[in-house]
Amino acid sequence: MKHAFRTLIQSSILPLVTLCASQLAQAQEFTKAELEMVEKVREHAHNSNLSWQLVESLTTEVGPRLPGTENDKMAVAWAKQKFQQLGFDKVWLEPSKFPEWRRYHESGFILTPSKQPLHLTALGNSISTPKKGLTGEVVLFETFDELKAAPAGSLEGKIAFINYRMNRDIDGNGYGPAVKARNKGAVEAAKKGAIAYMMRSVSTSHHRFAHTGGSHYTKGITKIPATAVANPDADQLARLVALGNPVRVELNIQTEDLGEGTSYNVIGEITGTKYPEQYVLLGSHLDSWDLGTGALDDGAGVALTMAAAKHIADHTQPERSIRVVLFAAEELGLWGAKAYFKHYEKRLGNIVAAAESDFGADVVYAFESNVNAASLPVVRAIAEQLKPLGVKYIRKNEARGGPDLIPLRQTTSAPIFDLHQVGTDYFDYHHTADDTLDKVDPEKLKQNTAAYAVFALMAANAETKMAGK
Amino acid sequence: MKHAFRTLIQSSILPLVTLCASQLAQAQEFTKAELEMVEKVREHAHNSNLSWQLVESLTTEVGPRLPGTENDKMAVAWAKQKFQQLGFDKVWLEPSKFPEWRRYHESGFILTPSKQPLHLTALGNSISTPKKGLTGEVVLFETFDELKAAPAGSLEGKIAFINYRMNRDIDGNGYGPAVKARNKGAVEAAKKGAIAYMMRSVSTSHHRFAHTGGSHYTKGITKIPATAVANPDADQLARLVALGNPVRVELNIQTEDLGEGTSYNVIGEITGTKYPEQYVLLGSHLDSWDLGTGALDDGAGVALTMAAAKHIADHTQPERSIRVVLFAAEELGLWGAKAYFKHYEKRLGNIVAAAESDFGADVVYAFESNVNAASLPVVRAIAEQLKPLGVKYIRKNEARGGPDLIPLRQTTSAPIFDLHQVGTDYFDYHHTADDTLDKVDPEKLKQNTAAYAVFALMAANAETKMAGK
């Protein structure tokens, strides 16, 4: 049927000269009926509040979802039940191990020249301070490299503090340079003899929220408590240090390393009619940090990928499968993703397109692929159908996918896509207590859902099976 | 000299027909040299960062200033020293009693359907929960009146929760209707048998900060713990209640009533040359809540009133005195102001103009008086000199002054002024941990300082001694 239609077009019922490249691509890859279906699904998704209902339910009824907690188990049960209620053809769990960690208490004070509370949070994986806390003098560094360059032993008994300011940008490109200090700051501070580590939050916010996130120790280097302070508190510390007198602070962090835990990737699939083993992978992660309710990170992603597939299934059964994977324990180190791509290591060629939504809930403004040349006509056709949603096409063909696709990229050259979201405000909320449902704009969430639905349906139905380069 | 100049004008060196009313007022009340001095002081104040330096110093080196705390004592010492360093002619302290109260711990959790932290704060004056906290089912009311209308005994063992949403407005007029629930909510809840009280914060913020503030018990009514939750948490509670299942929460508030304490109004005066006993009163309050560093409430007011007087003194010695009064213990019930106006009860007629800056640090957009008819020419003249700062003149003549002028208004009909500030964002920060220095815009603070300097200098030098109506 599709071939017949394509032949019909090529035999010039439509004058070929009037077809632009993207229209040609569409005509080559999709039947007219298929394109009409794409439009129908797009409009439906763009007018549905299903994704809102899902993110509202997850963040309200479950709330924070730190891997291994009771809430994480509830989230797994929630996701499985929602997939089933939404009528996905297959729903299953796959286990994932991860290093389990808990935050029990965190407080801090500036002690000199006056006592003032510090708004701070333990970085993920941080050890505890002694039960009664610890006190020390703050030594300020502007950058991670400045701390690295400090002489050995120079921080003996001190508390190292990096005051690096993250840049605000639409694509969040300030995150990479800032996050170095989170990942390894405590290790570098310990090397110089520091008894604890503080950093300005990896955040663009001027509100008094501290930003948590993964941090890592190095074997052979003393573990010291690792914390981030809210940006107004970082400013306060910097002003006090600038006055020239010693600034002493008190930190009390109580956490626990619980060893290896188990959580679950929750997977729902709409099974393809023609090539069921081939599939479009729509990713997001089900876990969240414990401070907020994980609405932007990544409840929105969970909701919109589930809803996108459901909107497709409500209208048509795609030729290839659409698999929504809600990864486990992303925040603690992509553990669910590592388990998933390890488990399917020999069958990664079945993935015809992969994209992850894990950058909040602002609008998708651009679409980009990372595919071989033969797949580009499909990409152009998809881009054409995303245009009505205000999504532009970035031709660089260098998409990187979300964080949970890193293990995929490291294993094979998969066909990976970015549905780039506006991220200008994302790091105002990311990994803070302020990541709550009210930060999700229902209208923008609809646009995201529609974009994912268009992308998934077309990747599943394209004449060409897409592949990486 | 002044009279000579006025006569000169009236004898038509300037053609009277071309003078507008406000120019006439200026000419009647001020010499040309005086008006030139006003311009000079205005420009100087508008270009000086003295007020910024003061608010930075107070909020950084002292920080939070809850009455009676070590920080409050530091603030009193800070203010006295600053007045002296700035060269005020007289600097003195006046004691004020107040009911001393401390906050030691506050935490809360939603318990069902899942455990989630609540961002909440004890209202000022709240009693403690039992040491291990208390738990109860939430009963939601939309308004204070709805709670008042609940049948007696209907909240036995329950936790009352008022979810009233404050309106955002330039003049903060949403505060009054919202604050009823803070003042007396716990009393009404206790009357119905509730074991604790929660309210949506009196705040326009969508960030996760709880808003504290004064609350009051009534003799004969059981005291129950009184708290406010951050607005996103109020939304979360409302969504959970709407699901129809019982919502249980846990609250743990540890506070202490320390009985009567003493703090100090700190007063600095620039002494008038001609009528030293008459004075312009520039008010603000030195204390703050303990959660933030009291930058907007009221560090900015302290800084800009001190700076305004200093800018005047740098250029001229006014005919009447300018007295800057940094009131004590405003947040706990205007205690410093009550003490001040009681102390000067018999000499309130010496106040020729009074204004308080206690509404943050956004620009002054309007000027309004509350004076007798004879004083209106002075008011018009001042308004004319405020125009270059973008300040309009509100002719209603119904100014109310800041909160610390309430005891003055209640005692006598004083000449009171409002330098109305834009308050659109004020209740995003007011009484929260997020009231920190970065919320003060240095440029807007300069405009405020200049407006206060113009007002104070002109009120001090006007030919007519202003009075209330």
UniProtKB/TrEMBL annotation, chains A, B:
Gene3D superfamilies referenced in this protein's UniProt entry, alphabetically: 3.50.30.30, Zn peptidases (3.40.630.10)
This protein's record includes keyword Protease: yes
Protein name: Carboxypeptidase Q
A Pfam family: Peptidase_M28
Localization annotation: Endoplasmic reticulum; Golgi apparatus; Lysosome; Secreted
All copies of domain Peptidase M28, residue ranges: 265-453
The keyword Transport is annotated on this UniProt entry: no
InterPro entries: CPQ, Peptidase_M28
PANTHER family cross-referenced by the UniProt entry: CARBOXYPEPTIDASE Q, PROTEASE FAMILY M28 PLASMA GLUTAMATE CARBOXYPEPTIDASE-RELATED
Major localization class: endoplasmic reticulum
Subunit structure, as described in the record: Homodimer. The monomeric form is inactive while the homodimer is active.
This protein's UniProt keywords: Carboxypeptidase, Endoplasmic reticulum, Glycoprotein, Golgi apparatus, Hydrolase, Lysosome, Metal-binding, Metalloprotease, Protease, Secreted, Signal, Zinc, Zymogen
Superkingdom of the source species: Bacteria
Residues of the signal peptide: 1-27
